[in-house]
Amino acid sequence: MPNPFSLADVPDPAGPDVQAFARDVPIAEFAGDENAMAWVTITTDSHGLDGAWSSRWRSGAAPWQQGVATIAIQGDRVHILFKDSETYMIAGVRQGDRVIGRSVNVANPDDTSPWVGILVNPYRIDGYWAGGRWDFRRCSPDERPEPIVAAVLTEARQLNAAQLRELLGFARYLRWRGTDSQPDEP
Fold first, then answer.
1. pTM
2. Does residue 30 sit in the same domain as residue 104?
3. Which of 64, 65, 99, 145 has its CB 3.0 to 4.6 Å from that of 149, i.e. a possible disulfide?
4. Number of domains in the chain
């Protein structure tokens, strides 16, 4: 079945290296996973897994690289088109709560890796590739942050403990000052 993005198909998405990689992907503790906390700054509509997603990847402990993705489902086949400074396509097969497949750089087909995504819920896919993590996220109905709040959360995650305490103290001060500095009504 050809992919819905009209691009060259991902080579051997169910190859032996993909199967071996999938066997070694750990079963994560979902609540404590780094993809559990909402990091999404763009709200997207959700219709099952199909549609727009926020995505990020990193190699080892390097900084996250953020991008956007489109997921298209065709039966048990899952196709993902990811874009940041590069464009990648992931093709895989859904097997229960996992998608097992391969990614390929559209401009450089030699840049390829096995990929496994764990379907946590319709708003979160915890992904693993040979070099590290490759996650997908949407805002769930109870997360829907305003863009400024999401941006502040994203920045706050970069702070050390002392800096975060300082930021939270300043926010409390502003809230306190905002309520106490109102002029009294006559």
1. 0.75
2. yes
3. 145
4. 2
Alpha-carbon distances, residue 121 vs 35, 124, 164, 165, 177 (angstroms): 12, 5, 30, 32, 40
Would you say residue 6 lies in a domain? Answer: no
DSSP 8-state secondary structure symbol assigned to residue 30 = G
Whole-angstrom Cα distance, residue 46 to residue 61?
Answer: 30
Ordered per-residue pLDDT tens for the chain, 186 residues = 578 999 999 999 999 999 999 999 977 677 778 888 777 766 666 678 999 999 999 998 899 999 999 999 999 999 999 999 999 999 999 999 999 999 999 999 999 999 999 999 888 999 999 999 999 998 776 665 555 555 666 677 777 777 777 766 666 656 565 554 444 444
Q: Are residues 71 and 24 in the same domain?
A: yes
Nearest CA-CA partner of 85 in 61, 56, 110, 59: 56
CA-to-CA distance for 130 and 18, rounded, in angstroms? 10
* CATH code, domain carrying 130: 2.40.128
Look up the domain containing 82 and give its range: 16-137
